[in-house]
């Protein structure tokens, strides 16, 4: 007998569980769904707390559960070391990817001198961006379940169009760790177009621009939509430009104009007042011509500050011009011969009149801002989720691959290349290197499944790339490319770029698996997500520690003459600490010991580098 449930929040019969759409943002995040009766998308406002959840995670000093959202944001100034923000910028990134921006964050990002993914240190605990993103997603899921009075287990999550395969997979992993089966990773501009109703008609052909100015980032994407298929023609932007920068321009103006520069740098309370006042001024001046407020100094005195709409426009004009320059480049890259059919606005900062006017003027048509710019991406994700639930029969859905495809990496881990639910035909690739000096062969083992350890997935085949030139570990560059055709046939190719050595093999990834087996593999991955991620992170920490020990031992062996006995003794003691941590089963002690070894040896490495440079300048051979 079929079962039918009643959703207490919507008062309607519910035969299928609701699939939500999630906008996991740099500054703010939202969750939305399509109402089963009205068929309209709506952002979820749980307990009247608003639809927006700030993407901030705070770890209390007493080790209690993390605080997420608006409550966590309060600690950004009072306890910055334990308050993590802008974690989306860290997803799928190594420390080297961050460059100078790492030093601008209020919390500590670990530099382990490798190309491994970044880790964030809070006291003696370590977190990956995936774990922190999962905390935010878990909060969104909890709010959705509370508001809708129904379990939420499946979701569509949006990412910027420029996100690479590693960043998309990290987002998918974060969803899985939050207990969500991520049915699809959707480009944010695609979601925005869906929210505006573009792409829902299979016979429609349009080319649109999506201008997205959020709190911390700016993106411009040019899309072509035909027969329900969204193609990104070009993308551009600035990952360090957003509404926060508009506020900062106002703060800088006030500190200079009202003589607050010295007090601003020494008084955290005044800093917070100024930033909050600048944000209020920005919003107020979108509707009015003049803004006045009062700040309070340490002596309790009132300091009046003012700003006119004309002054505000002049302050932010250089920032808006930077976004228009990116739009100009995106149009050039798209090589368009026809005028755009629409210009869609996304992100709260597009409410600023100067932004609207500049965008409309540049594109030669009024920009479409008819939807709430804060919610539009989440609404589009909800529509995509509704399509995947089978509730919109008129929209084309391409075939997808049922299980993740990837290869085995160090420590017996599965490195995903083509994630589950990717539209086919598709292609994707990653770059790898050798782990041992002089390595001339590289085994490529291909697996199918959702678990982190290859031993818990299904092996599809393997081959060996031979003839790699003998070089030090880390120097060879091997591209591994997956091409999955419409018939489900997977072609795997490995190429060593320096020598152009290549090898390839064809396999059938779906052969021999029933629908029941696929479902069981998916269920196992969700049930074991927390344990799987813990196992992966421990293996990754061990691998990174072994590589660090190799580098340090190699360095001290070659440069003993430049180190004192005290330095050598201290290094040997810390190496022993890392080795002792490696013998354990906990990740955090390994990462802590690595961090301390790296801090200890960095000055030595810098000194030896300076000596080498001096010798080179003197024309001597560098040993």
From TrEMBL:
Keywords: ATP-binding, Nucleotide-binding. It holds the Pfam family HSP70. Belongs to the heat shock protein 70 family. InterPro entries: ATPase_NBD, Heat_shock_70_CS, HSP70_C_sf, HSP70_peptide-bd_sf, Hsp_70_fam. This is Molecular chaperone HscA.
């Amino acid at each position: 007998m079929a079962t039918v449930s009643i959703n207490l929040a919507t008062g309607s019969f519910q035969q299928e569980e609701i699939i939500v759409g999630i906008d996991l943002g740099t500054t703010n995040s939202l969750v939305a769904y399509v109402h089963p009766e009205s068929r309209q998308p709506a952002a979820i406002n749980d307990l009247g707390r608003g639809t927006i959840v700030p993407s901030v995670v705070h770890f209390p000093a007493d080790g209690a559960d993390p605080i997420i959202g608006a409550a966590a944001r309060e600690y950004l100034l009072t306890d910055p070391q334990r308050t993590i923000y802008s974690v989306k910028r860290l997803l799928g990134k190594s420390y080297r990817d961050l460059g100078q921006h790492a030093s601008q964050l209020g919390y500590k990002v670990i530099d382990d001198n490798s190309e491994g993914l970044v880790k964030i240190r809070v006291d003696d605990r370590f977190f990956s961006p995936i774990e922190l993103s999962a905390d935010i997603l878990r909060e969104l899921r909890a709010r959705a379940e509370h508001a809708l009075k129904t379990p939420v287990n499946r979701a569509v999550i949006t990412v910027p169009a420029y996100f690479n395969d590693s960043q998309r997979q990290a987002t998918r992993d974060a969803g899985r760790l939050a207990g969500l089966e991520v049915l699809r990773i959707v480009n944010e501009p695609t979601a925005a177009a869906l929210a505006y109703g573009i792409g829902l008609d299979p016979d429609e052909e349009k080319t649109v621009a999506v201008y997205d100015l959020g709190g911390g980032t700016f993106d411009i994407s040019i899309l072509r939509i035909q027969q329900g298929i969204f193609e990104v023609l070009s993308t551009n932007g600035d990952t360090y430009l957003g509404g926060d920068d508009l506020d900062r321009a106002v703060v800088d103006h006030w500190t200079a104009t009202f003589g607050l520069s010295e007090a601003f740098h020494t008084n955290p309370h005044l800093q917070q007042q100024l930033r909050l006042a600048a944000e209020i001024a920005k919003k107020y001046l979108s509707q009015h011509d003049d803004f006045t407020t009062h700040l309070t100094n340490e002596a309790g005195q009132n300091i009046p500050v003012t700003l006119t709409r004309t002054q505000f426009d002049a302050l932010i004009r250089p920032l808006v011009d930077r976004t228009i320059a990116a739009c100009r480049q995106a149009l050039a890259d798209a090589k368009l011969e026809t005028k755009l059919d629409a210009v869609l606005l996304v992100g709260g900062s597009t409410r600023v009149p100067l932004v609207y006017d500049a965008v409309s003027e540049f594109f030669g048509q009024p920009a479409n801002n008819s939807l709430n710019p804060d919610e539009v991406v989440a609404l589009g994700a909800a529509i995509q989720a509704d399509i995947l639930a089978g509730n919109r029969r008129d929209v084309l859905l391409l075939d997808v691959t049922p299980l993740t495809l990837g290869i085995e990496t160090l420590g017996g881990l599965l490195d995903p290349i083509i994630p589950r639910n990717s539209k086919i035909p598709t292609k994707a690739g990653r770059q790898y290197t050798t782990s041992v000096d002089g390595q001339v062969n590289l085994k490529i083992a291909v697996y199918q499944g959702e678990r982190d350890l290859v031993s818990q997935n299904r092996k599809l085949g393997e081959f060996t790339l031979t003839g790699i030139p003998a070089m030090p570990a880390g120097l060879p560059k091997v591209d591994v490319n997956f091409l999955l055709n419409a018939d489900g046939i997977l072609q795997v190719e490995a190429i060593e770029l320096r020598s152009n050595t290549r090898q390839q093999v064809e396999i059938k990834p779906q052969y021999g698996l029933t629908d029941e087996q696929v479902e069981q593999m998916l269920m196992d991955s969700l049930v074991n997500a927390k344990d799987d991620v813990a196992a992966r992170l421990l293996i990754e920490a061990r691998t990174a520690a072994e590589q660090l020990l190799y580098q340090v031992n190699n360095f001290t062996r070659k440069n003993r003459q430049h180190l004192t006995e005290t330095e050598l003794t201290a290094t040997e003691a810390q190496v022993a600490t890392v080795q002792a941590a490696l013998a354990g089963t906990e990740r955090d002690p390994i990462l802590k010991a690595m961090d301390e070894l790296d801090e200890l040896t960095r000055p030595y490495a810098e000194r030896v580098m300076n000596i080498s440079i001096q010798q080179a300048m003197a024309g001597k051979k560098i040993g």
